[in-house]
Amino acid sequence: MTALLGLVTFGVLAIDTEQNLPTPELQARYDRLINELRCLVCQNQSIADSNAGLASDLRREVHSMLLAGRSDDEIVKFMTDRYGDFVLYRPPFVRRTLLLWLAPALLLAIGALVAIRVVRGRMRLASTDTDDSDIESRPS
Amino acid sequence: MWRYVLPLAGLVVLVVFFYRGLQGNPAVIPSPLIGKPAPEFSLSSVRDPNRQVKSSDFTGRMYVLNVWGTWCVGCRQEHDVLLAIARTNVILIVGLNWKDDRALAIRWLDQLGDPYVDSAFDPEGRAAINWGVYGAPETFLVSADGQVLHKHIAPLTLEIWERDFLPKIRASQGNAP
Prior knowledge:
- The structure holds 2 protein chains of 2 kinds.
- Chain A is mainly alpha-helical.
- Chain A contains 5 helices and no strands.
- Chain A has 2 domains: 1-92, Orthogonal Bundle (Helicase, Ruva Protein, domain 3); 93-140.
- Chain A has helices at residues 2-15, 24-36, 53-67, 72-83, 98-137.
- The longest helix of chain A is centred in the last third of the chain and has 40 residues, at 98-137.
- In chain B, 41% of the residues lie in helices and 20% in strands.
- Chain B is built from 5 helices and 7 strands.
- Chain B starts with a helix and ends with a helix.
- Classes of the chains: A mainly alpha, B alpha/beta.
- The interface between A and B is medium-sized, with 14 and 18 residues.
């Protein structure tokens, strides 16, 4: 998967005018950041995937902020200050997104409860069945 | 009894949930700038590369910032509305010309009419990013003390103007001495 993303990013770099970043560490942070930021024009693509004008502008901002020595958190904050949490493919874990993050666990728990009840019911039914067959097999 | 009621209740909850999910427009992303200080900018004027248009030129006055470009179909669509609003002299309209060509932009203003007190030229889109712009046309309302009061995404119509902008403008003018 990472290799695949790397390929995608490489393709994108080819259409941008920016040079590759000086160190592999910076380049890796760049690749990770642009894959985590949503393109707001084409909402189902990251800014790494999109060739929209705005995506290319945002890649340029990430690029220059990395060169200026800004941290990943500062860059993400720059983006959310302007575009809101929507730019993040991974929304923050805050009160407003609690249901979003906990929904899978919650649904799994509900499913488990239902499953347990059904299985218990079947077991009870099965034992009644044996009783019934006993009755039926009894000579009348 | 419950084994029929519970799944039905669950279904109703899901239907309501998904139906509401279909109502919103996913292309409209709420701006985190509302109620915050408007981003500053200092760019050359579309009409005169030697003249700067700065956000500080408008401090103390309420203004509308309209993001436009000659490549933007929606901007052409709302242009007559902007001209009509400008004629009412209710508020200043400042243009932010986004990722455009200067010659084309000047021709657009000359041919279609110029509703703007001035248009800032932002070919690289850096000021637009500070304003959280992601698609033209976008229209911001900025108060006299420099707060973003409202943002409209998509072409303006007079109905939208009268419903979403005018009451806010009137309210603040009422408060002003």
